[in-house]
Amino acid sequence: MGNHSDDLPASSEVVAKAGHDEVEKFQDPGLPPHRLRLADTDPKAAKRAERQVAILFGISAIGTLLFFFAYFGIRLDQTIATLRLQNMFLGLGIGFAMLGIGTGIVHWARALMPDHEVSEERHEMRTEEDRLAAVQIVDDIVEETGIKRRPLIRNTLIGAMALAPLPAIAILRDLGPLPGNAMHTTLWKKGERLARDPDGTPIKAADVTIGSAFHVIPESLNTLTEGKLNEKAKAAVLMMRLDPDELHPSAGREDWAYNGIVAYSKICTHVGCPVALYEQQTHHLLCPCHQSTFDLTRECKVIFGPAVRPLPQLPITVDSEGYLVAQSGFHEPVGPSFWERS
């Protein structure tokens, strides 16, 4: 094989060879030449871009108004068609509200705000001079946006941003009842029979075998004509039967179960998802939303997941006909653990 060492250059300005004391540094190529945009050179183009941004902010405001029209103006009549129509306009309204602001700001930055590149050394800001320099930088940024010189953009942006959060407030307010008596009061009361969900037939203790699980509602739910879904959401219960020796009730709760039959609220104490998974071998209840896990043998104590409060227990017994009934309502609010609760 030939020796190719003779083919290499004697010296190189790019590669540093072993033994060299210093490595030649590349020169800073600097910033590329700044290219002016059409709006930078043509006042008419700048004015046109300004109007386009204002139109986008106006579209955002219209989208917010469309959301409120759908939310308050379209009355639901228990038909799927009306529900779909409202959902469609709700989605379009909030979509245009967010899209208008986002697109408007992006177009504003690309077409009208200064786009020249700068290179600055980063250093700690400790002196008063540095603080004043930082304030000046902020002032320069505000000046460069042109918001002081472009009242049309400024006013439409303020209007769009003032309206945009309102749909979120309306949606969050309508998620459910506020904490307090609304979540403390359910249909469960002394003597209320436990009934199967969804057919509403009462359950006898003799029909509940060890290892079985029932989705339970109050029997009186069948007679409601208004607010049935809301009441069911608060009163839904899971009922299981274990070997009585596996239960470890705390003081004062020794008689809340009947022959190993226990009943607990079905509403997860994290964010209110339905706890619907029962692991028969481990006696664990699992919330499928965020995997909060409750130990059924220890009064549904939280053993895993984000929930911080056990599931409320419904005290139960049997009536003279052998049907399972509630001894009382829940002794604590059901549902998510709001910060107001201890």
UniProtKB/TrEMBL annotation:
User: What Gene3D superfamilies does the annotation carry?
Assistant: Rieske [2Fe-2S] iron-sulphur domain
Instruction: Give me the segments passing through the membrane.
Output: 53-74, 89-109
Keyword list (alphabetical) reads:
2Fe-2S, Cell membrane, Disulfide bond, Electron transport, Iron, Iron-sulfur, Membrane, Metal-binding, Oxidoreductase, Respiratory chain, Transmembrane, Transmembrane helix, Transport
In the record, what terms sit under GO molecular function?
A: 2 iron, 2 sulfur cluster binding; metal ion binding; monooxygenase activity; oxidoreductase activity, acting on paired donors, with incorporation or reduction of molecular oxygen
Give the primary localization class: membrane
Q: What is this protein called?
A: Cytochrome bc1 complex Rieske iron-sulfur subunit
Q: Which Pfam families match?
A: QcrA_N, Rieske
Alphabetized CDD domains for the sequence: Rieske (cd03467)
Organism annotation: Arthrobacter livingstonensis
Q: In the UniProt record, does the keyword Flavoprotein occur?
A: no
Keyword Metal-binding included in the entry's annotation: yes
User: In the UniProt record, which is one GO cellular component term?
Assistant: plasma membrane
| Known role | Iron-sulfur subunit of the cytochrome bc1 complex, an essential component of the respiratory electron transport chain required for ATP synthesis. The bc1 complex catalyzes the oxidation of menaquinol and the reduction of cytochrome c in the respiratory chain. The bc1 complex operates through a Q-cycle mechanism that couples electron transfer to generation of the proton gradient that drives ATP synthesis.
Family from the record? Belongs to the Rieske iron-sulfur protein family.
Write out the annotated subcellular location. Cell membrane
- Domain of life of the native organism: Bacteria
- InterPro entries recorded for this chain? QcrA_N (IPR045603), Rieske_2Fe-2S (IPR017941), Rieske_2Fe-2S_sf (IPR036922), Rieske_Fe-S_prot (IPR014349)
Q: Which residues form the Rieske domain?
A: 261-325
